[in-house]
């Protein structure tokens, strides 16, 4: 098939719409549903991300995409008991690719609502069962087991989008796009992100353990497929905060850092002790947890908790939140798609437990940025490579 007609483009008024190949066949097949224009933009960007992660680390990888940027990305590492609880994971053994998706979806559950999922490996029944209860638009993977496909075809009243992509497909070396009727042309960004990029450690602390290297690779590859400006916080093989599409880098760092803080606060004992009423659905639980973390006092005082929880929750005060983050969140890695112009980005990163930083370097204030990192005992690598994506 050389082309696939779509219902419409980015918006219903943008017709006609299609995806097509100027030469050869499309490297993908729709196994179920009718993906749209934005679905395919998410699918193709997310597939590139998980393919690159698998190549860089050797581990299964997954991503959760929304509006052409990742809400989360993760490697297929085992889930802790706490992670199983806060991500609403299915009971029983889970395969590495299932763990990868559950962790990617769990990174920022509010932003992942209605996501597009990408899997580096064949989608098995474990992964399909993890996808089944989530509000999600579709999934792309190199293959599906019969059982997994059967589970996914039953989702959304039979309309769930399932796309298989040829894992051996390589794009043309030149890519083009039209904006306002004018054609832009550039070389495809085939930059390989690997551990060789992490060799220029510019801080006094130069101790970079292997898990931190994997986290740096995860951060950088995630940024390569995130709308710029972008900053990414990573911990233990998963993103915990992605700041995308901001005009100011410090705003990226703050946005992503706030998301990382919320991810960590979901593990606070008060949050884990929340007792939901049986009729509260999964998305409503995510929203309730977000409201509780943001302002538990207001939720309790106005009586809003009574529609959500069977037991009155404890108040999670600002002091509780600050103490939990400062005393417990540590060993975090941060990546930036372009250099930090000021040390304030490092100051903000420190507030969310950042220990390791990967960024291109090249600012006229690099000395200030390095000195700020040294003040906190951080390890910072200059990659020398910008990762803008638009």
Order of helices and strands: EEEHEEHHEHEHEEEHEEHHHHEHEHE
Reported for the largest beta sheet, the result is: 6 strands, mixed
Shape: globular
- Could you name the ranges where pLDDT drops below 50 across 5 or more consecutive residues? none
CATH superfamily of the largest domain: AICAR transformylase, duplication domain
Structural features, described:
This protein has 390 residues and is an alpha/beta fold. The protein has 3 domains: 3-165, 3-Layer(aba) Sandwich (Cytidine Deaminase, domain 2), CATH 3.40.140.20; 174-265 and 325-382, Cytidine Deaminase, domain 2; 269-315, no CATH class. It is built from 12 helices and 15 strands. It has helices spanning 37-57, 81-86, 96-106, 125-131, 146-153, 210-224, 249-265, 269-272, 282-301, 318-328, 344-351, 366-375; strands at 3-6, 17-20, 28-32, 61-66, 69-75, 115-119, 136-141, 161-165, 174-179, 182-187, 230-235, 238-244, 332-336, 354-359, 379-382. The strands form 4 sheets. Strands 3-8-7-6-4-5 form a 6-stranded mixed sheet. A 5-stranded mixed sheet has the order 12-11-13-14-15, sandwiched between helices. The protein has a two-stranded antiparallel ribbon with strand order 1-2. Helix 3 (96-106) packs parallel to helix 4 (125-131). The longest helix has 21 residues, at 37-57. The radius of gyration is 21 Å and the shape is globular. The model has no long low-confidence stretch (mean pLDDT 96).
Summarize this entry quickly:
By secondary structure, this protein is α/β, with parallel strands linked by helices.
């Amino acid at each position: 098939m050389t082309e696939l007609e779509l219902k419409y483009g980015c918006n219903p008024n943008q017709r006609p719409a299609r995806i097509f190949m100027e030469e050869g066949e499309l490297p993908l097949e729709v196994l179920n549903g009718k993906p749209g224009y934005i679905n395919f933009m998410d699918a193709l960007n997310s597939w590139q991300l998980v393919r690159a992660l698998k190549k860089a680390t050797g581990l299964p990888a997954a991503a959760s995409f929304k509006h052409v940027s990742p809400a989360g990305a993760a490697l297929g590492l085992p889930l802790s008991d706490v992670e199983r609880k806060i991500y609403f994971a299915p009971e029983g053994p889970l395969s590495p690719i299932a763990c990868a998706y559950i962790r990617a979806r769990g990174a920022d559950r509010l932003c992942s609502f209605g996501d597009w999922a990408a899997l580096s490996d064949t989608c098995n029944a474990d992964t399909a069962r993890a996808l089944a209860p989530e509000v999600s638009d579709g999934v792309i993977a190199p293959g599906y087991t019969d059982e997994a496909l059967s589970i996914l075809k039953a989702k959304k009243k039979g309309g769930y989008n399932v796309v298989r992509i040829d894992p051996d497909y390589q794009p043309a070396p030149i890519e083009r796009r039209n904006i306002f009727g004018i054609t832009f042309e550039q070389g495809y960004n085939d930059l390989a992100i690997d551990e060789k990029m992490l060799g220029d450690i510019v801080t006094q602390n130069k101790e970079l353990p292997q898990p931190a290297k994997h986290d740096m690779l995860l951060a950088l590859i995630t940024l390569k497929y995130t709308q710029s400006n972008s900053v990414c916080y990573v911990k233990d093989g998963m993103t915990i905060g992605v700041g995308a599409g901001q005009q100011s880098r410090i705003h990226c760092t703050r946005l992503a850092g706030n998301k990382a803080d919320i991810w960590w606060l979901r593990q606070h004992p008060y949050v884990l002790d929340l007792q939901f009423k049986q009729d509260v659905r999964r998305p409503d639980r995510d929203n309730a947890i977000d409201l509780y973390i943001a302002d538990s006092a207001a939720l309790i005082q106005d009586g809003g908790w009574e529609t959500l929880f069977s037991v009155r929750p404890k108040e999670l005060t600002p002091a509780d939140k600050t103490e939990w983050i400062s005393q417990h969140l540590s060993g975090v890695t941060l990546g930036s798609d372009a250099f930090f112009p000021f040390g304030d980005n490092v100051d903000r990163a420190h507030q969310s437990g950042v220990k390791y930083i990967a960024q291109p370097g090249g600012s006229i204030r690099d000395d200030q940025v390095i000195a700020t990192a040294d003040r906190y005992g951080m390890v910072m690598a200059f990659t020398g490579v910008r990762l803008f994506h638009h």
